[in-house]
Known about the structure:
Layout: E1 21-23, H1 33-46, H2 48-68, E2 73-81, H3 107-117, H4 120-130, H5 136-139, H6 149-162, H7 173-184, E3 185-189, E4 195-202, H8 205-262, E5 267-268, E6 271-272, H9 273-304, E7 306-307, E8 310-311, H10 322-344, H11 350-440, E9 447-451, H12 464-490, E10 497-499
Antiparallel strand pairs: 1-10, 2-4, 2-9, 3-4, 5-6, 7-8
Amino acid sequence: xxxxxxTSQLLPYPRxxxxxxxxxxxxxxxxxxxxxxxxxxxxxxxxxxxxLFTTIAAIILVIGYIWTTQPLYSARADILIDPRQKQIxxxxxxxxxxxxxxxxxxTLLLDSQIQVIESQSVLGRVLREExxxxxxxxxxxxxxxxxxxxxxxxxxxxxxxxxxxxSPPPLSPxxxxxxxxxxxxxxxxxxxxxxxxxxxxSTDSQKAARIANRIAEVYVEVTSEAVAESTGEAAxxxxxxxxxxxxxxxxxxxxxxxxxxxxxxxxxQDLLVVxxxxxxxxxxxxxxxxxxxxxxxxxxQALQATGPNGIDTDRIESNESPVMAQLLVLLAQLDAEQAxxxxxxxxxxxAYAEVRDRKAALLASIKAEHGRIxxxxxxxxxxxxxxxxxxxxRLHGLEQKTAEANxxxxxxxxxxxxxxxxxxxxxxxLKRSKEASExxxxxxxxxxxxxxxxxxxxxxxxxxxxxxxxxxxxxLMAGLALAWIRHVLRRPPAPQYETIx
Length: 501
């Protein structure tokens, strides 16, 4: 029975079905996936010589490159950056440490330190100290590059690009050495730490280690010098300002004392002279008033002893006069004698009359003495009253002076506050100046070398095993590509198909 499968047998002119492929007469059957794989393997097996030759050629080229390339040795030094402040002094004039980053991980701060290490201040110093400006490894063939074929080609390209007059001048030895140093140097942060690694490449392992260590040391020195310089500038600024503040404080104190002397505000123990005088005068006035009242009372008592009928001897105070005391004693004796005689004699008796006459004479003496006592008491009272009035007059004058002094004290207090503020500022600057002077000599670096670079025993570039594996892989892929291209160029044209619409 004849098969009617359209996939295995195609008629020259089949029934036209829209969307199907129709083979022209003489075309072969459609290839399957297995046919494609077998065909690809056959292509590569046929071109195995091309693949092998290309792979070997790539390996030979890499080996030649390795033989002709100067090996480079790497050396690495590690620096620890400590962002914390060193509280050696209670109040540092120039704060140490790196501060804090807004990101929380101090990424920006550490990136800034990497830029400092790669800066001209650090690398330029290393170039001078290590003599790299005269090292052929770093300056290369800057003097003879124009005579070499590569140099002549570069000059020709520069002339074409820049024109005959616009070609840049050749690099100076310093710039050439700096350019090479930047190429050979790698500065990076070790993971998420505060450690910065400095890796240096050189044809000499000893030189690589020496340069890496020197870069780390110079960076530590530069950071310390920067803090010391900043502290020194702060100390110099404080010293210059200190003299001005000292003069201002002295001028303020002199203004206070001059104002005190001009307005009579001199005093001791926080008490003005006028206030002390007023206090003393009030005390004296109190005593004077008491003396006046006492003298007045004594005078009134003495005056009360004198009545319209004579002197009342019972009301006379004998303590005012010794004579009065004696007279009163004699009067008492005569009164007693008169009373005794009166019991036995008549008033007309001569003895009784004699006693009466003696008593009358004694009373006249008492009256005269009492008058003198009244005069003395009056004089004492007048003197006490005059003293009291004088003290009251002085008190009134001192009260006016005190009022004037109080008004002057208002401005004095303002001058004292200004002087106190100037003294406080001067003392603060003096303290800060002392602290700045002490801080200059203290260690202030935030970095230290934790791992020195050591000379490497094997070169880091080129890596032979890696280069050989890479060349073999590249040569193999190139050989496969060449074999495929060769097959494509040689095979006959494929059968034509068309789609029926």
